[in-house]
Design brief:
14 helices, about 525 residues, 5-stranded mixed sheet, about 15% strand
């Protein structure tokens, strides 16, 4: 008679041994906790919730300069199973999708390995050693599809809370609803090497110190970041992504750019230094010294066709002023990167007819150029416009932004996450980086500054029904993921309304100022 529990134990131990020998160390949760407590950042004995009950997390990037490839292994003795879960990082023309459903019918069975999330389950009924070796071979095959000299970056994401073990104020001064541990686990699953939390107009040194330790123990790089609002006509003006070399540069950037009025409840609001002044200031004070890379977030902003909130895009702000095309074009000289795809913009939101003739002509010209390159007509959307925008501007780099405010837990059924749709690539090319460990955020920012490495965006795209969009097989979520995201989005919307009412109740505004404020929230024309 088969001893299932004994086989499960043998399988788990054999897999751990084989993974270690193959260069995939496991995340040392105890050491992570000890480092956090030694720095006075963590409550004694409190879990980090990075490695969860019955779980092991392996990553070839721990303690080396290898790019990350994570394998999650979860043991569930009560269910007589051990599950291994990892990502297919292929980005070629045959990159994997989920099994798609159209008109209620399946497109056919998914062949082994076609799914972009790989789930292998061992139930203890076969040879445990042979099963462990089969999974290791499978892991090594998929890991080989991810280059060691191309790191993947989460360059634009928002967080709500630090884990409960964090000793100080857990709440981020931001509008994210996500838990930090969920962000790290989800980005680990999708083989990210670098994570930059880009809170609106704020940076917390203590939180960053804790995040940096956690990332380091996971074999990842935490890069200091911020999403800065540069006001124009309204306090919710164009958004800039700031990636700093270290926490000192981030603190200096915050001091330079975000001395906003203290009674703003809405995190994206800033009434300090306008765009045409803050960009040269940040560039001259930090970028010239190799301490900062500046990106334009969602350059054409369009949340809804009837409430577009053009003001928060560096290009779309031409529609509402006070900036004209020539001045915006000149200001892009201070920008290093364009966010060529932002998940929150949606894939099928048409850009409506614009009042600005200059901007309308620019949209038509670039979309015509994109259509020519694609070999078929493409409709104008914020992302299709941004996708082709670097061809029109002398900007060195590109990035992909999930702009995720509602990251769900990574619970072994995490399909359809924004991270599946693309990523930012930090390409080291032939750069002679000789250290045995990963570069620091400072190393990366300075190498980008000197042009030694590149930053590019990879997006999984297809043209369907005239829209340049992410294929459905990369967007489709199962019911569990849909339900969790819906709950988080409802919390975010309630918080948004409360914040609107709180801000409006505090301000003593004349009708003109009230109109500007309403437009900042997307409430006015």
């Amino acid at each position: 008679m088969v001893n299932v529990q004994k086989n499960l134990t043998t399988f788990r131990k054999t897999l751990a041994n084989r993974m270690g020998n193959a260069g995939f160390p496991s995340v040392n949760n105890a050491r992570m906790q000890k480092r956090l407590m030694n720095e006075g950042l963590w409550k004694e004995g409190a879990p980090t919730r990075i490695v969860q009950k019955g779980e092991m997390i392996y990553n070839r990037g721990i303690g080396s300069n290898n790019s990350s490839f994570f394998v999650f292994v979860k043991s569930e003795p009560s269910k007589n199973r051990v599950t291994a879960y990892y990502y297919n990082p292929d980005t070629g023309h045959t990159a994997p999708m989920r099994n798609r459903h159209q008109k209620g019918k399946k497109n056919g069975p998914v062949k082994s390995g076609q799914e972009y999330l790989i789930r292998k389950v061992y139930r203890g009924t076969s040879d445990p050693v042979a099963a462990a070796e089969r999974i290791l071979r499978n892991v090594l095959y998929y890991a080989s599809l991810k280059s060691n000299n191309k790191y993947r970056m989460e360059s634009h994401i928002h967080c709500g809370w630090m884990p409960k073990g964090y000793k100080h104020n857990r709440r981020f001064r931001d509008d994210g609803m996500s838990q930090f541990e969920d962000i790290m686990r989800m980005n680990a699953l999708y083989a990210r090497d670098i994570v930059s939390l880009t809170s609106h107009n704020s940076f917390s040194r203590k939180k960053f110190m804790a995040m940096e330790i956690i990332a380091d123990e996971m074999g990842m790089i935490m890069m200091p970041g911020m999403e800065l609002t540069a006001p124009g006509n309204v306090p919710n003006g164009p958004h800039l992504l700031l990636w700093f070399s270290d926490f000192m540069a981030a603190h200096e950037g915050e001091l330079i750019a975000t001395k906003r009025r203290s009674d703003f409840a809405m995190p994206p609001f800033n009434d300090d230094i306008p765009l045409h002044k803050v960009l040269p200031l940040l560039y001259n004070r930090l970028s010239r010294q190799g301490e900062l890379i500046i990106g334009a977030a969602h350059p054409f902003n369009l949340h809804e066709s009837d409430h577009p909130v053009f003001d928060v895009g560096m290009v779309s702000t031409i529609e509402t002023g006070p900036y004209k095309y020539k001045s915006i074009n000149a200001l892009f000289e201070y920008v290093h990167a364009i966010e060529t795809w932002n998940v929150s913009m949606g894939d099928t939101r048409d850009i409506p007819p614009l009042k600005s003739r200059t901007l309308q002509r620019m949209v038509e010209r670039l979309i015509h150029q994109l259509s020519f390159e694609m070999g078929r007509k493409v409709k104008p959307t914020p992302n299709s416009f941004s996708y082709i925008l670097p061809n029109d501007l002398s900007v060195q780099f590109e990035c992909f932004g999930t702009d995720d405010h509602t990251t769900t837990p990574m619970n072994y059924v995490a399909d359809g996450a924004p991270q599946a749709r693309g990523h930012t690539i930090i390409d080291f090319g032939n750069t002679q980086y000789t250290s045995d460990t990963k570069p620091t955020a400072k190393d990366i920012v300075q190498m980008l500054h000197h042009g030694l490495i590149s930053m590019d965006a990879h997006v999984f795209t297809e043209v369907r029904k005239g829209y340049l969009q992410v294929p459905w097989g990369r967007r489709e979520m199962n019911k569990w993921t849909q339900s969790l995201r819906k709950g988080l989005e409802e919390k975010a919307n309630k918080n948004y309304v409360r914040t609107i009412l709180r801000d409006i109740a505090k301000f003593k505004l004349n009708p003109h100022e009230m109109g500007n404020l309403a437009r900042s929230y997307g409430l006015g024309k």
